Amino acid sequence: MKIPHIFFLTLTFLFLFSACKKEFQPTPGAFGRVTEFGTEKPIANARMELYKCNSDGFASACFLTDSVFTDSEGRYQITYDPEEANYHVLTPVAERYFAGAEKILNSGLSIEQDFVLDPFAWLSVRVVNEAPAGEFDKIRLTFNPSGGGWREINGAEVDEFLFDRIRGNRTKSIQWKTYDAGTPTNQVLDSVIVAAHDTLYYEIRY
Question: What CATH code is carried by the domain that includes residue 94?
Fold first, then answer.
């Protein structure tokens, strides 16, 4: 019995398709964009750092193994060998930006992973104790109303500058409480937004 030529053609096609499918398996890695929080502007020349990490069940040790830079559109692509370590960690680093969140890579796939970075901004606060001012006057202020980072300034004739680096394009709260000879007199909660890489000058008079 003769076997039709189409049968051999079908087998040949299936063999070639299977071979091509294996050949074009994506290399493990990550690709995506790095942008600025609040504006979604691409961040060019961000350094994408790839660390290989090994764990013995008690602790992990990570070592920088590769890095690439984002292009003018904030895009990057990086690959890794999953056999080199238990897992890999990818993190973006850019000048005048806070470090971004890390991404653990251990799937052995090529995945799309975008990052959003907070830009540096600066807040300059001038604190002035106006007349009549007593030596036991006091002001307590913080740029973190959740309870941390309180700063206390005592005495008369205060004229002081406080300077802080903050996250740009985000709402920043400023809270202060004033005291006259130990007795609370006023409490204020304010909020500001400082544009990326800009400085806001803020004044408190009490």
Answer: 2.60.40.1120
Residue 2: per-residue pLDDT: 53
Q: With the CA atoms of 52, 70, 68 and 93 taken in that order, what torsion angle do they form, in degrees rounded to the nearest 10?
A: -50
Report the distance separating Cα 30 and Cα 120, nearest Å: 26
Residues 198 and 153 placed together within one structural domain of the fold: yes
| 127 Cβ neighbours under 8 A, 6+ residues apart | 139, 141, 153, 158, 159, 160, 161, 162, 204, 206
Burial class (CB in 10 A: 0-12, 13-18, 19+), 34: buried
Which residue stretches of the chain have pLDDT < 50? 7-9, 11, 13-14, 17, 19
Number of structural domains found in the chain: 2
Residue 13 lies in a domain: no
Q: What is the pLDDT of residue 87?
A: 94
139 is in which domain, residue-wise? Answer: 120-205
Label residue 176 exposed, middle or buried (CB < 10 Å: 0-12, 13-18, 19+). buried
Q: Do 63 and 130 belong together in one domain?
A: no
Question: Per residue in 57-82, pLDDT tens?
Answer: 788 899 999 999 999 999 999 999 99
Predicted TM-score (pTM) above 0.85: no
